[in-house]
User: Which sequence fits this backbone?
């Protein structure tokens, strides 16, 4: 007689196999979720850095062409709006005259936008610089040839859903710039 060979799986073995498979599935899904979160967060930070650096570079080009002196300031900061008005040497003659333009950067805190007005005296459509600005501060004095600008951007500046600016789900970027005005006489 042949001995009977029972090749069956007990309930305990089946439960152990299910637990091991569950741990493997949870482990791989956690790795996938974590890596997706890191990729999305870093992509958002990179886009914010690009927007802020573009805005500061745009201001640097305009402010670098500012013209004026201590009696007729080249840069006027209106803290109530906030707004940054700049007299730009349009014909590159190094003198403030009738051909020069007054340009402006306007921050709308309600819409979280920074806009550029190419000619304040002949209003035309404003150009949008950034749609995610949550901080704009500019300081100019009549005694230096520099304008100090702080520009901050947040992925969701309205902070909908209770996500604070600077949190992992709502990254924020703040950059400062000291912009030189080479055509301005302060002394």
Assistant:
């Amino acid at each position: 007689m042949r001995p009977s060979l029972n090749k069956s799986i007990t309930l305990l073995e089946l439960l152990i196999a299910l637990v091991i498979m569950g741990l493997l599935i949870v482990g791989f899904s956690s790795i996938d979720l974590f890596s997706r979160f890191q990729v999305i967060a870093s992509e958002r930070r990179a886009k914010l850095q690009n927007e802020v650096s573009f805005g500061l570079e745009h201001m640097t080009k305009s402010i670098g062409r500012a013209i004026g002196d201590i009696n007729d300031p080249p840069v006027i900061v209106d803290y109530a709006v906030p707004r940054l008005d700049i007299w730009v040497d349009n014909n590159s003659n190094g003198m403030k005259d009738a051909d020069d333009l007054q340009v402006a950067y306007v921050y709308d805190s309600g819409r979280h936008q920074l806009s550029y007005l190419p000619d304040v005296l002949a209003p035309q459509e404003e150009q949008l610089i950034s749609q995610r600005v949550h901080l704009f501060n500019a300081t100019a004095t009549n005694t230096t040839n520099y304008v100090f600008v702080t520009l901050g951007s947040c992925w969701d500046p309205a902070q909908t859903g209770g996500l604070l600016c600077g949190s992992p789900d709502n990254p924020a970027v703040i950059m400062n710039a000291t912009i030189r005005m080479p055509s301005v006489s302060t002394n």
User: Anything to note?
Assistant: The first strand starts at residue 68 and ends at 69. The helical segments are 11-63. Residues 11-63 form the longest helix (53 residues).
